[in-house]
Amino acid sequence: MGYTRKVMEHFANPKNVGEMKDAHGVGRFGNTVDGDEVVIYIKVKNDFITDVSFKVFGCVAAIASASVFTEMIKGKRLEEAIQITKEDVSRALDGLPSEKIGCSVIAPDALRAAVDDYLKKQGRKK
Amino acid sequence: MERVYFDNSATTRIDTRVLEEMLPFFVHRFGNASSMHYFGREAYDALEVARQRTAKAIGATSREIIFTSGGTESDNLALQGVAFANMEKGKHIITTSFEHHAVLHTCHFLSGQGFRITYLPVSKEGLVDPEDLKKTIDKETILVSVMSANNEIGTIQPIRELAAIAHEGGALFHSDAVQSITKLPLDVAKDNIDLLSISAHKFHGPKGVGALYIRKGVKLRPLVFGGGQERGLRSSTENIPGIVGLGKAMELGMKEMEESVDKMTSLRDRLIEGTLSRVNGCHLNGHRTRRLCNNAHFRFDMVEGEALVLSLDMKGFAVSTGSACSTRSPETSHVLKAIGLRPEEGRGSLRVSLSKFNTTEEVNMFLESIGEIVERLRSMAPRGLGSGET
Lengths: 126, 390
Prior knowledge:
With 126 residues, chain A is α+β, with helices and mostly antiparallel strands. Chain A is built from five helices and three strands.
């Protein structure tokens, strides 16, 4: 399994791991029975992500992808953050093995769920 | 960082005494065993010494040993060789659902060639029930193939009993003994075995060399045709250094078996008991006592196998897992499926396999690390052990 140095760095020392009790939005994607699972927590001010954290169950690629993704979205406008794709995540890790690309999509999908949750709480989305 | 090798079911470190015996055959005694001149005779003599050593180790005669490129080729030769040479008698082969892929994939191929294959189930501990074999065998059955010990979970099968049932039903009996040579006392005569697969690199010999024991009188069709080496059953210039290494490793392994097995059994039990007592949500896969002396196979709740293996690797421990994650779906090995594990149960599996070179200190180091590593991974998880509900 050819993981890049960057993947292994994020796996060994993942950034922003943990539950956020006072999150403005929480999004979950996947489940541990069928595969990987990620929960993303966000804090938002003026539609900018001011803080983010995550919890993850999954393989090395899933952990590293969630870690690098949370770094990528910090300080970004919500609209911009939800545009980030699995290819962007893979590039940020200097690439993932082809069979692991699927693992890089769970964090972006969890973020979309977190943004939906935030907008609902704000009454801006039904 | 000190590195500890705990993946000896995958491959083993060559014994320096084996290497010493092999070295002259690369440079000084490099002849082709088929040549008539001095160099050829020298190579031929070495070939026959290795053949005698290999035969003696399993209670066979020299003429019953064929050298191959390894366990995979031996399995292929045994199954295809018997199948195509005995088609007029019948086209039914019985094996188990959790054999090595070298057997399973050969059976799949034979199925496509018109052979009927029956896959016996195994218990949750990985044991074949001899009664299942009795019920399945019929007059069309030409071969029964059951591994003597499983490569993943280490379960030891009742080979002698299964072989006797095969013979009662008029079938030949093959056993993939790749994991058990030098770890279990095997005697082809007492155990009623007709064909036995051997691989040198699993017992401190070189890679790329193996053997197949073929009981005298067993009809076999070759896979490889050419110059007629190995009594016409396996053409190809013999890999003399490798074969010399196999013979030496076999001789040493058998001579030192009692001592090595005692040592590995003690380390294995320390490892199993220590891990189970230190880590919550940890289970042993396979049979508690009927298992290879060097095999410990665990599963951890709410831990992903690849992440666990690479976490241990970062701490210096080389181990393996029976699960894989691809396209976000957990894939459990066919062995773990065969013992009835669901994908979510099998995905946190870990195989720790020892050798005679491992030490108590190394096992202690592992025991000091495993709990912390498992907890670190669980603490990242959204729910489950050690993380609280999210």
